[in-house]
Structure formats: structure tokens, C-alpha cells
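Lab meeting notes turned into a lecture example. A postdoc, R.K., suggested we walk through two folding results consecutively so the class can see how the record format repeats. The first protein's sequence and C-alpha cells come next.
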Amino acid sequence: MRKSALSRFYAHMISLGREFRHSGAPRRENADSATSPALIFIATILGTLLAIIEIDLYFAELQAIGLINRDVAIDPIFRGP
């Protein structure tokens, strides 16, 4: 039963990959092409998430060197474990 679910999931992911590959704009011959707005958006979101994770991961070290003020309380719901 589990193998069937995994094979259906794999087949679904393959079909999505093929759909995205064929749905893009046709390739141009010249090297001067504009960057996709979706690519810029995804890169921005991933960069922001990386910054948030890095700050959360090194919160104690940033406090120790004085980059984060200890007097400002951050609600624990917004911080990781």
C-alpha cells in the first residue's frame, strides 16, 4: 500500500516537472535576456528565509557580541526552540 502511494507521488512530481519545463518561454539565441520576475521573487524569499534562520540560529552569539539588545524582548512565539 505504501509503495503504491510513493510511486503515485513520484509519478505526480515527474509530471509536474515536465509541465513546468514545457510551459516556459522558448529559448532565445541571444545572450541578452531579461531575468524572470518569478525567479527574482523566489530568490528574494529564499534569501529572506535564510537570513531569518541564521539570526534565529545564532541569536545567543549575536546577543553576546552586542548586536542584539538584551532589553528588547522578543515574544518567544516568534523565536525557535
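The second example is placed directly after the first for contrast:
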Amino acid sequence: MTNVGNIGYGAVSNGSKCRTLWYKGTGYSGEWFYMLRALDLSNYKDPYLRNGAGTGKYSSNNFEKQVSSLRFTDCIS
């Protein structure tokens, strides 16, 4: 999904079989963080994006209302 419009106070990887990458920029660009699969039972949700989010190079940055695109990756059957 791209151009989702700076959404979110929190994030949940609802794709139980996929990791979710969240980006500040449109078209999967800019700073990003990722959440594991819900099946992993850890690090798949973050209710407060202002103090950092998920895992990844930029995970300590504020992402509250700054997510503009997201995609699913590393899906399992």
C-alpha cells in the first residue's frame, strides 16, 4: 500500500504470516521500521509510535502520524 496519508498512532502487523514494513515516505521510501509476523508472538504490535516503533535502522524515531506507505514481506505459507 502506498500513499496511505500519514496515518497511525499505533501499528499492528495484522498479516499473521507476513512481516510488515512501514515507511515515512510514499512509494516505500524514507525512514522505515518493521513488525514481525503475528505468528512470531513478539514485536508485532506497537500501540504508541511517538517513542519509536518496531525493529530496524530507524526504529527509535517518532513515527506517529507519519506513515505514508507499507508493504508485506517474508510471507510464509
